[in-house]
């Protein structure tokens, strides 16, 4: 919506939005570290990633637009998978508070594997398509202005921190006595998560399906 307004680049409109996007990456990532509600943490994570997308779109280079499109698709699937995982926990524990849902790996070992894979994807571990999108965006912003590498670097570090925090708080530790006899997971839940992560895996094999749109 804003891309058409920024062609050609008017600096008086471009810079304020760029500052808000980059500052928003740090602020929303930092908020994730303080969250006790699982769904709120995932939501703020999405806002942080969209700060990268906004900054890349404003620069308006082929690499920037490619990175923005790649990250939008990749994080759309990743965030949706995280919300689906949070819902499977909530349906059984009836709480989203991280301190109360610890140690679920003991109750749902297969679901814990989905949590691990999705969180690794969320933090853009190689060789995920999320990493490709973030590399495109970070390279674009670095080429546009060198100091942006400090903000994007710190944002990436915080993203890895809260992704690990989310996994450890929900899966590791001692399980509460009230959650020792929880109903098992269903096939439909595993199918839902497969349909989220399988496209991400397939896009790794042929990222040109996205990157070829702007290059």
From TrEMBL:
Residues 8-159 form the NADH:quinone oxidoreductase/Mrp antiporter transmembrane domain. The chain crosses the membrane at residues 13-33, 40-59, 65-86, 98-117, 149-170, 191-214. One of its GO terms (cellular component) is mitochondrial membrane. Its main location: mitochondrion. The keyword Phosphoprotein does not apply. It comes from the Eukaryota. GO terms for molecular function: NADH dehydrogenase (ubiquinone) activity; NADH dehydrogenase activity; ubiquinone binding. It is a multi-pass membrane protein. InterPro entries: NADH_UbQ_OxRdtase, ND/Mrp_TM. Its EC number is 7.1.1.2. Keywords: Electron transport, Membrane, Mitochondrion, NAD, Respiratory chain, Translocase, Transmembrane, Transmembrane helix, Transport, Ubiquinone. It is found in: Mitochondrion membrane. One of its GO terms (biological process) is electron transport coupled proton transport. It catalyses: a ubiquinone + NADH + 5 H(+)(in) = a ubiquinol + NAD(+) + 4 H(+)(out). Belongs to the complex I subunit 4 family. Core subunit of the mitochondrial membrane respiratory chain NADH dehydrogenase (Complex I) which catalyzes electron transfer from NADH through the respiratory chain, using ubiquinone as an electron acceptor. Essential for the catalytic activity and assembly of complex I. This is NADH-ubiquinone oxidoreductase chain 4. It comes from Podarcis cretensis.
